[in-house]
């Protein structure tokens, strides 16, 4: 099922520490989550560029979901949540918090822009 | 709509009662099982909401209660499919809102009223306050030969039914015959209506899988603050209007809304509905609009 694919896309903890060649090294993008926004909430990336999204929460547990890319993670305060992806489709993809977090939860979203 | 028109409409509604007929309860034999009846669905009342999307928020619920009390033929019972209250981080204020909500709806003349939680009621404290005021988060009941199943896809803040509830659902369904008439009541859509607007239930597909072998199933839900009709195979899903503000038609704009309040048409897109159960299911939307 879709869920399993999503889980497979989440890479392990930072402690995994396998050395990589510089050319293969994913670009790290740090995104902070707090009630009720992501910062930054617009992220532009290049198609085919391996990425690691490094998600951190400043207050409580939030979600991070990109339905169009089959990505989903929970962002727990006090730790980095790392999500690996290599975007293959050009376009604008909505990401949003899918862990109900209060009055404003519905506005907690952003856009991942994949350019050619 | 003028007061007179509205009264006429309500009268017609209760007599003719066909604004939307789902091709539902398709199995012909099932009609012999039970008498006909109707019930009313309220959804997404969001008591406690203050904001520009509904300047009349303090009165909309009371008006809807009056509308339902004025039905020429009173419903057998009334259901509320979640988001009774608007969320707050303050546990004390949450309980005050639930208390006030309960007072307002106690004016309903029909006393058989069933509540269900929405994420605004239950996601921040896993349903703790909700249970104090309204009881169980999920349950079943039977009425005139129809089996009702209320599912909770909101008290888990990640919008999951969860394996425990799915096992409970499976065990309940095992006791049903394939052509039993079954109504599922829930807050969020059990199918992927619009995943990028969060109009989905994380494990809703598992519930649908369990329901698929049953021939006469219909789902009534809320959450999306507008009417919407969808089929998963032979199973119809009907989303209800809200009583607080309308959200956008899926895909019609980048964000779901709320749609802006229009002073020229107060109450537009808001309302409850009267659901008639016979060999087919049909329902009539009851506007919250005051003439
Ligand atoms: Cu959040």
In a nutshell, what does this entry contain?
Chain A has 116 residues and is mainly β. Chain A has one helix and nine strands. Chain A starts with a helix and ends with a strand.
How would you sum up this structure, described in words?
With 116 residues, chain A is mainly β. Helices cover 7% and strands 44% of the residues of chain A. In chain A, the strands form 3 sheets. Chain A has a 4-stranded mixed β-sheet with strand order 2-1-4-7, with no helix packed on it. Chain A starts with a helix and ends with a strand. In chain A, 28% of the residues are buried. Chain B is of the alpha/beta class and 291 residues long. Chain B contains 7 helices and 12 strands. In chain B, the strands form 2 sheets. In chain B, strands 1-12-11-2-3-4 form a 6-stranded mixed β-sheet. In chain B, α6 runs parallel beside α7. Chain B starts with a helix and ends with a strand. The N terminus of chain B is likely disordered. At the A-B interface, loops of A face loops of B. Copper (II) ion (CU) binds next to loops of chain A.
Can you identify the CATH class of chain B?
Answer: Alpha Beta
- Helix segment count of chain B? 7
Would you identify the CATH architecture of chain A? Sandwich
What's the multimeric state? heterodimer
Fourth-tier CATH superfamily name of chain A: Cupredoxins -  blue copper proteins
Task: Please specify the SSE layout and strand pairing.
The complex is a heterodimer of chains A (116) and B (291).
Chain A: H1 2-9, E1 27-34, E2 37-39, E3 42-46, E4 51-57, E5 62-66, E6 71-75, E7 81-85, E8 91-96, E9 109-115
Parallel strand pairs in A: 1-4, 3-9
Antiparallel strand pairs in A: 1-2, 4-7, 5-6, 8-9
Chain B: H1 3-15, E1 20-22, E2 37-42, H2 57-69, E3 77-81, H3 91-105, E4 113-116, H4 119-122, H5 128-134, E5 139-143, E6 146-150, H6 163-174, E7 181-185, H7 204-211, E8 216-221, E9 228-232, E10 235-239, E11 271-277, E12 281-287
Parallel strand pairs in B: 2-3, 3-4, 6-7, 7-8, 8-10
Antiparallel strand pairs in B: 1-12, 2-11, 5-6, 9-10, 11-12
Helix pairs in contact in B: 6-7
The structure holds copper (II) ion.
């Amino acid at each position: 099922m879709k869920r399993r694919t999503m889980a497979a896309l989440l890479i392990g903890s930072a402690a995994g520490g396998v050395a990589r060649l510089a050319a293969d090294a994913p670009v790290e993008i740090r995104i902070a989550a707090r009630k009720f926004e992501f910062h930054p909430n617009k992220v532009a990336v290049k198609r085919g560029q391996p990425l690691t999204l490094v998600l951190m929460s400043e207050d409580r547990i939030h979600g991070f979901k990109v339905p169009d890319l089959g990505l989903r993670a929970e962002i727990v305060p006090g730790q980095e949540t790392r999500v690996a992806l290599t975007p293959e489709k050009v376009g604008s993809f909505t990401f949003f918090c899918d862990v109900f977090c209060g009055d404003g939860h519905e506005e907690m979203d952003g856009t991942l822009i994949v350019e050619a | 709509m003028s007061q007179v028109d509205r009264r006429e409409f309500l009268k017609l509604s209760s007599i003719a009662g066909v604004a939307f007929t789902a091709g539902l309860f398709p199995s012909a034999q099932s009609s012999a099982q039970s008498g006909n009846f109707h019930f009313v669905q309220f959804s997404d009342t969001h008591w406690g909401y203050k904001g520009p999307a509904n300047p009349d928020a303090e009165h909309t619920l009371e008006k809807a209660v009056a509308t339902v009390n004025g039905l020429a033929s009173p419903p057998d019972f009334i259901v509320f499919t979640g988001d009774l209250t608007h969320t707050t981080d303050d546990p004390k204020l949450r309980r005050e809102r639930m208390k006030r909500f309960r007072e307002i709806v106690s004016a309903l003349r029909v006393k058989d009223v069933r509540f269900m939680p929405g994420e605004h009621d239950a996601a921040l404290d896993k349903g703790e306050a909700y249970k104090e005021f309204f009881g169980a988060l999920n349950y079943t009941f039977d009425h005139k030969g129809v089996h009702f199943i209320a599912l909770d896809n909101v008290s888990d803040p990640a919008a999951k039914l969860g394996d425990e509830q799915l096992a409970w659902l499976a065990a309940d369904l095992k006791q049903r015959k394939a052509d039993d008439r079954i109504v599922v009541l829930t807050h969020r859509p059990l199918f992927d209506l619009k995943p990028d607007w969060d109009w989905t239930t994380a494990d809703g597909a598992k519930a649908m899988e369990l329901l698929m072998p049953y021939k006469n199933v219909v789902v009534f839900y809320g959450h999306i603050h507008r009417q919407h009709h969808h089929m998963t195979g032979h199973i119809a899903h009907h989303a209800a209007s809200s009583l607080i503000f309308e959200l956008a038609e899926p895909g019609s704009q980048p964000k779901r809304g709320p749609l802006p309040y229009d002073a020229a048409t107060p109450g537009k897109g808001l309302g409850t509905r009267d659901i008639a159960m016979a060999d087919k299911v049909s329902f009539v939307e009851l506007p919250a609009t005051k003439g």
